[in-house]
Amino acid sequence: MKLMHLSDLHLGKRVNGFSMLEEQRYILEQILELVRQEQPQGVLLAGDLFDKPMPPAEAVQLLDDFLAELSGCGCAVFAVSGNHDSPERVAYGGRLLRHSSVYMSPVYDGSIVPITLEDEQGPVDIYLLPFLKPASLRICMPEAEIRSCQEAVAAALEGLPVHPERRNVLVAHQFVTGAQVLEQEELLIGGTDGVEASLFDGFDYVALGHLHGPQQVGRDTLRYCGTPLKYSFAEASHHKSVTVVELGEKGHVTLGLLPLTPRHDLREIRGTYDQVMDRSAYTQQNRFDYLHITLTDEEDVPDAIGRLRTVYPNLMKLDYDNRRTRESGALLAEEAPEQQSPLELFGDFYRMQNNKDLDEAQLAYLQRLTKEIWEEEV
């Protein structure tokens, strides 16, 4: 049986103030073409379908088009809600969608019923586990003392009808301890959010979402496929792909990667203003890519960001790396405040007031505080 694993579409996302909607439309068309070529029996969507719990109408329409096209390809679709999604909105219409072999995770109510596919080797049971926090379990298991994601996921998986002689697949959206985390993901992943990989030992393949970097955790078949697009400059070196999972007889799983090519890449370049603006620099690569430019001029260039955007219209971030900024211990950024994270804004304010950076204890406290506020909003 062939399955394709995707996650973290983040439809409707804006990166540094730039809408990614058309880039997302482009990459979803590319994924659909891969589905038509590979003809999998199922597509696994491991959460964060949208970037916000209340996504814009254009993002909802884009997901609707994508699901309809996938269903038209003749494959089943298995999707769970992630921490950025509203579980209720993802679940809406789920019973009707099942008639088109599109299975959306319901709001967690204490039970998970597998969906079974068949091939020449027999049945494959697919379980859908939406993103869980301790609060998700307290509603349906009020008698249980659940204080962490580890305890929440363990309680949700306990008692599932996972038959040891059948092939079992889990689609989930959680942080598994030991996975590599990008800098911007640390804000959303505290120590209590980690779950142990051993919780998933009963599954032949675990299709994970939540982390943007493609990677395995502990074993090949416990895998994050990563995002289909780069959504931060921490991902600039990533090679995005779709993971293809082939299930043979029990115990035999093979994995492959199908590369994805964006319409506009997200890149970092550095050099003096004259070097970056030299015609040879922007005729060799796509000048419409999304860019972080670091200028190495010793003197600030007047209206640098405006002048650079005459050549590079999708310039997202500009900063300087020179003697002055190195002596101050930080790059001098020409970045609009609305394009910075709350953590970056507070760090800039603290540095301006105290002439020093936040220490590790202060940074950890601020990360916990921001995470708590985020969870309350989600």
Strand arrangement in the largest pleated sheet? 6-5-4-1-15-16
Separation, N- and C-terminal Cα atoms: 36 Å
| Most strands sheet | 6 strands, mixed
What is the global morphology?
globular
Spatial extent as radius of gyration: 22 Å
Percent helix range = 25-40%
Mean pLDDT, as a whole number? 88
User: What is the count of DSSP helices, taking H or I runs of 4+ residues?
Assistant: 12
Q: How much β-strand is present in the residues?
A: 25-35%
Quaternary organisation: single chain
How many extended strands? 20
What structural category characterises the helix and strand content? alpha/beta
Q: Low-confidence spans: pLDDT under 50, at least 5 residues?
A: 187-192
Report on this structure.
With 378 residues, the protein is α/β, with parallel strands linked by helices. The chain has helices spanning 21-38, 57-72, 87-91, 94-97, 134-140, 149-157, 273-277, 279-283, 304-308, 323-328, 342-354, 360-377; strands at 2-6, 14-15, 18-19, 42-46, 76-80, 102-104, 115-119, 122-129, 167-173, 175-176, 194-195, 205-209, 215-217, 219-224, 241-247, 253-259, 266-271, 290-295, 315-320, 332-334. Strands 6-5-4-1-15-16 form a 6-stranded mixed beta sheet. β2 and β3 form a beta hairpin. α1 (21-38) runs parallel beside α2 (57-72). The radius of gyration is 22 Å and the shape is globular. Residues 187-192 have low confidence and may be disordered.
